[in-house]
Structures are given as C-alpha cells and as structure tokens.
Amino acid sequence: MKNTGINIKSEAELIRQIKNGEDEALLDLCFRYKPLINKVKGMYHVRYYDNQDWEQDAMIICHASAKSFDLNKGKFGSYFKTRLINHARSLVRYDNAYRRQALKQSVSLETAKKNNLLPLNKSFVSIPEIPLSENIAILTGKLSTLETNALLIGLGIVKQKDVIEKLKISKLTLSRARSRLAQKMRQTLLD
Has the keyword Transcription been applied to this entry (predicted)? Predict the structure, then answer.
C-alpha cells in the first residue's frame, strides 16, 4: 500500500481511540476491513438484506469487537472476522427458521386422514393470498379474468370443467387463454 502523506494510524491506536469513544476511529477501522466485510457479505445471502444493512451491521460488530478486544491477545482482524461470520450465520439461521414456519404448521396426509381433517375449501383461495415475488405480482396484474382462471387451473387450484361451466366457454377458448398466459409469463418472468 502506498503512503500518500496521510497520517495512517496503527490498528492498536484505532482500537484504543474507539475504546475512548472517538467515532472517527471506528470509520477508519471499518474502512481498513472493508475487503473482509465484502467477502463475508458475498459468502452469505440473507433475504431483504442490502449493502447498507451489511455495512451497518459490520460497523456495529466492529465497534463491539474493538470495545471488547484485548490488545495483548491475538490479532484484531481474526477476532473481528469470527464475530462478523458468526453474526452472518445467525442471520441465515433466523431467515431459514422463518421459512420453516409453514412446515411446522403442516400436517401429513396420513395424519389428516386419521383425524378426519377436511381439505381447505378451494373457493376461498385467491391469487393475492399466495406468496408472490414482484414479478409474479406484476404478471397477475396483467392477466384477464380468463387468463387468471387458466393460471388457477395450471396450479391445480380449480378444475378445468368447473371454469368452463362457470364462464360458459369452450375448451378452445380456454386453450387460447393458456397460450396468452404462457406468452405473458415468458415476457414478465424471463425479461
């Protein structure tokens, strides 16, 4: 690294300053470990976490690490790295636990049959109740009533004969709606 005349403080000096409450030393120390922060950020994917969230968490962890670090033991870089990776893993565990909540509430088919549980009435299911990504939400906003019904048939939520009887349409009309649906799906989801 090239010294450009700027007063480059040692890591130990920055840590001492952070322990004394000097905020600018924290910024310098975080800047020094920016490559490490970026590496950890790239290793772990957490839903709904953007660069600002990662940088803020890294700064908080850097501050806590500097406050609790003993300058007579080991290297700060490895201590900070361990704490940052542990934090990232905790975020991933929390995110995965959130995703498993639906599994905790589910019941196997055998248990449902044994306990005489009835399936949900499919007439209550609507498109907005299904978890959707932005692209899916955009797609459903572009669909006509007939195309929406074609989608519900494709997802197995409603039966084809029920839609044909309810809307009083032919199989050919429904087939054309499926074709338009497929075209809109390609345009919306693949572009």
Answer: yes
